[in-house]
């Protein structure tokens, strides 16, 4: 493992309001027992593809759904040609969270693929299967249906757990490289074996907030997610609005049950099975998934992983630090 250190357009009054909102959000989450989230929450035996439009032509692919063997429809985007890059999003978001990376890489000649996790975004709001085993199998269904080969898998936050668990269950026969960004592995919750984790009260507080008023909770959570409660932070109401939009598009049941998956699943054995080149990117001011119990530990578990720390970066580094993340992804693809 090697480690390297890597518009606003808002009025002054609006900037002050966002910072004030961050303080209010922190106080509300603390009251719920979340001190801060580090500061803040068959029918068929084969899969099938249902096109939402005409079949792809001239290298452009339509937005589509894969139907898994248990009948769930998983929404995905598939753009471009060339070596595939497959993205897995964080909670409570969807594939649109990868817009900066997908646009950049498709313009560089790569094929980019991203799906909405079941219970999130435009995928089916299933009442069953909201667990990491099924999430990983759904990702496998998408990759198998599209016959993806030689892919670079990229997972952010909960998506990093999904990528790791996919490899743990399905291996690397379709995978050439792996990137984990602000990812939850190896284990978020504090246990005797994981003393650096976050107490269960944090995640109980997230569950309570989602159940009570997830709309307001997502607006509040977006502030530390993007690091807007820090001095001289970049401010964007658009980022908050988009975070809220993606969150509210999903199923409250699916998102509620996913909290257990990103907090209590131990991905250690999955990380040990990663046998392809791996890059781990993490911000050292990540208030959602603290780096010491996540990125730095994962880099010690994954064989020959490279860890790059982004000084001062938040959990939303793929958006706030998009240019640097994009450059690192491209360099890793081409390396």
Topology, element by element:
Elements: E1 2-5, H1 12-31, E2 48-51, E3 64-67, E4 73-79, E5 84-88, H2 99-107, E6 111-115, H3 132-145, E7 151-156, H4 158-170, E8 175-181, H5 200-225, H6 237-249, H7 252-264, H8 268-272, E9 278-283, H9 295-301, E10 306-310, H10 317-320, H11 322-334
Largest sheet, spatial ordering of strands: 1-10-9-8-7-5-6-4-3-2
Largest sheet: 10 strands, mixed
Count the domains: 1
In CATH terms, the superfamily is Alpha/Beta hydrolase fold, catalytic domain
Query: What percent of residues adopt helix (DSSP H or I)?
Result: 40-55%
Low-confidence stretches: 6-46, 52-61
Strand fraction equals 15-25%
Give the structural class.
alpha/beta
- Rg to the nearest angstrom? 19 Å
- Residue-averaged pLDDT, rounded? 88
Number of helices: 11
Say how many strands there are. Answer: 10
What is the terminal separation in angstroms? Answer: 17 Å
- Fill in the CATH topology: Rossmann fold
CATH-scheme architecture: 3-Layer(aba) Sandwich
Tell me the series of helices and strands, N- to C-terminal: EHEEEEHEHEHEHHHHEHEHH
CATH class: Alpha Beta
Shape: globular
